[in-house]
Amino acid sequence: MTGASGAGGFAWIRVVAVMIKEFKQLTRDRITYAMMLAIPVIQLTLFGYAINTEPRHLPTAVLTYEDSRYARTLIAALESSAYFDVVAQARNPAELDRMLRTGQVQFAVTIPGDFTRRVARGDKAQILVEADATDPSATGGAVAALAALPTQALARDLTGALAARGAAPQPFEVVVHRRYNPEAVTAYNIVPGLLGIILSLTLVMMTALSVTRETERGTMETLLATPLEPLEVMIGKLAPYVLMGLVQTAIILALAAVLFDVPMASGWIGLSVGVALFISGSLALGFLISTVARSQLQAMQMSFFYILPSILLSGFMFPFRGMPAWAQWIGEAIPVTHFLRVVRGSLLKAQPLADQWRELSALAAFVLIVTALAMIRYRRTLD
Amino acid sequence: MTYAIDVQGLHKRFGDKHVVDDVTFRVAPGRICGFLGPNGSGKTTTMRILCGLLTPDAGSGQALGFDIVREADQVKRRTGYMTQRFSLYEDLTIAENLAFTARVHGLDRRRERVDAALERLGLASRRDQLSGTLSGGWKQRLALANATLHEPALLLLDEPTAGVDPKARRTFWDEIHALAAEGLTVLVSTHYMDEAERCHEIAYISYGRLIARGTVDELIAGSGLVTFHGEGPDAYRLAHELTGRPGVETAAAFGATLHVSGPDRAALEAAIAPWRCEPWRWTEAAPTLEDVFIQLMDRSRDNVS
User: Fold this and answer.
1) Is a pLDDT exceeding 70 seen at residue B182?
2) Helix, strand, coil proportions of chain A in percent (round to 5)?
3) Residues B100 and B197 both lie in one domain
4) Same domain, yes or no, for A301 and A200?
5) What are the chain A neighbours of B101 within 8 Å (beta carbons)?
6) In chain B, how many domains are there?
7) Contact: B104, A382; criterion CB under 8 Å
């Protein structure tokens, strides 16, 4: 028997040997090392600053049928609640409805023509607030704040003979319509959103791995030595995953309808185009990752780096409008953000194709850019 | 005559490493050319340049009459390349791997060709076995069958028998000779001397430079080496003693026999003179290919440093 430790049992020297080896390997794999340091920083910044489950300053459109002092005071009161930012004046109900449907505004406020008269007479004055409730958590706080509006908004204007109206239980009533998701079912928002997340998770990662696996196992060398063209390899490798993405989409939509009663309003054309673009883009992104990653582990890590902000900043988990401007800019650059708007817009809001062209063009741009990059990066040689 | 391989002044650098340095050589059709040289000398890189996997930084050449850079596609169609590492799909069966290759090359009579290849390999009964579960020797034979499925005119084999047992190696080489007899040109890299001796000709590369070329006999004759075999007690200790003495290029013990060689007869004889007595018995022998290669390796190292 030689050496410091005994034959059997536990020896610290051997533990230390493994520890030193492990630590050296960890520092040698730069990406893993960077991830371990970057992830806490990124997560803290995102969770700490970007995520706000009770968004304020939500874009609001107003349709006023009377230009009165009360109406102006009411609008001022809405804005001073900090929940509503009046960004547009609609000229007619159709325009107001369109603004809400396209997602340009979160709230649509209608002040009827007889508002002042009814308040003065104490005759059940009403204003209508329509909320885009596809994401119930985005509107919840604002809707709650509306409860205090009637007693406070006109307090200063109701003076003299009308002071009694202000003291009465309520000088007017706020009628709230939760559009697109009247019962504020969270699942209606989450389940269509999951379509985007699940497709990203599986397709980006699967493709990234499938090409990197060839490089790692050495089969890429044999593949490159055959007459195969890069485009042939790309189409051939991606086609099975397109099919997989379509099957996944069908399963998710079917379960959404059967288990969660998610409305399938319509907008099937927009949805189909969106799904096709999103699947293509995700696959091309996976392919692009695989041209950069040198091992399957790196491919996994890079995919994860893409998926993390996709979950947090796309409006999937937290209301998009709750995020500060910088986070919204990042969010706008994430394909999932646009895909979610298409899916929710189609299923919940029955958006016609005309409402979706912005989001669909964003997705098309994503497909084009990533495919071009992937083709440029793909090497026909081992150089 | 059109050479199967005809390249001039190939260069390839990776960063500041000059991996292939002015390599020029020709191989006539139907010949088996052994590609030898130490690890990292540029054999694999040269082969990859030949089959279009790497672009040379300088130099030009033809394989089977096609330009290796501009007409890489034509070369790829007619060349079989077997990588150093087993690079078929381990999660596909033997038959599936062959069928994939047949499809990629757009071969007709696919089923027939795959069946014939399996028959020739003696793997017909195991066609549905995953190729990852084959032993080393079988994997190499499968890889060879795969690389020759499209009936190439040129075969590039990168250390095809590394880690394969002697019997499997012999079978493998019998197959290579059978293929060459049909007119196939073979460039095969190896570290085994017995394999080098089975080649029609040899190209020796070191530090990226091609430093020797010819048949086995030509190389041995051209080396100018003198070799002695010594028999006696403690051959191993004596080998150790002689190594590094002036005039001794190599001194190695094979069991009870000592094998010494050097380029200068007088110097070598002077070195072994103290032991040229009882109980030692010395005989002069022909230098082996291994002696020649060790000499080549030492010389090229001296040139570089």
Assistant:
1) yes
2) 65, 10, 25
3) yes
4) yes
5) 226
6) 2
7) no
Best residue in B50, B51, B53, B101 to probe A by mutation, most A CBs within 10 Å?
B53
More confident call, A376 vs A19: A19
Q: How many CB atoms lie within 10 A of CB B74?
A: 17
* A36 within a domain of the structure (yes/no): no
Query: Which of B85, B86, B105 is opposite residue A226, by nearest beta carbon?
Result: B105
Confidence (pTM): 0.79
Other C-beta atoms closer than 10 Å to the C-beta of B17 total: 12
Q: Which of A219, A225, A382 sits opposite B89 (nearest CB)?
A: A219
Nearest to B104 among A217, A221, A228 (CB): A228
pLDDT of residue B64: 94
How do residues A29-49 score in pLDDT, each as one tens digit? 777 778 788 888 887 887 788
pLDDT at B304 over 70: no
Residue % of chain A over a pLDDT of 90: 32
Binding-face residues of A in 181-220 toward B, CB within 8 A: 217-219
Mean pLDDT of B254-265: 88
Chain A: residue whose CA lies nearest to B15:
A383
Residues of A in contact with B77 (CB under 8 A): 227
Going from the C-alpha of B47 to that of each of A158, A248, B53, B188, B219, the distances in angstroms are 93, 44, 9, 9, 22
Nearest Cα residue to A171 out of A199, A144, A148: A148
Does the distance separating the beta carbons of A225 and B79 come in below 8 Å? yes
Instruction: Please identify, among A179, A197, A225, the residue that sits at the C-terminal boundary of a domain.
Output: A179
Cis peptide before B56 (omega within 30 of 0): no
Contacts of A381 in chain B (CB under 8 A): 52-55
Tally A–B CB contacts below 8 A: 43
Residue B234 and residue B91 in one domain: no
End-to-end CA distance of chain B: give it in Å, rounded: 39
Interchain contact A381–B (C-beta under 8 A): yes
Is A17 a domain residue?
no
What's the domain count of chain A? 2
Q: Which domain CATH number covers A170?
A: 3.40.1710.10
Domain encompassing residue B66: 5-220
A282 and A335 in a single domain? The answer is yes
Last residue of some domain: A151, A179, A207? A179
Contact B87 A224 (CB under 8 A): no
- Smallest Cα–Cα separation from B229: which of B256, B260, B267? B260
Write out the residue range of the structural domain in which residue A240 sits. 187-382
Give CA–CA dist A236/A231, Å, rounded.
8
ipTM of the complex: 0.79
Q: What is the pLDDT of residues B116-154, one digit of tens each?
A: 999 988 888 999 999 999 988 899 989 999 999 999 999
Residues of chain A found within 8 Å of residue B85, distances taken between Cβ atoms: 218
User: In this structure, is residue B57 part of a structural domain?
Assistant: yes
Q: In 3-state terms, what secondary structure has residue B158? A: strand
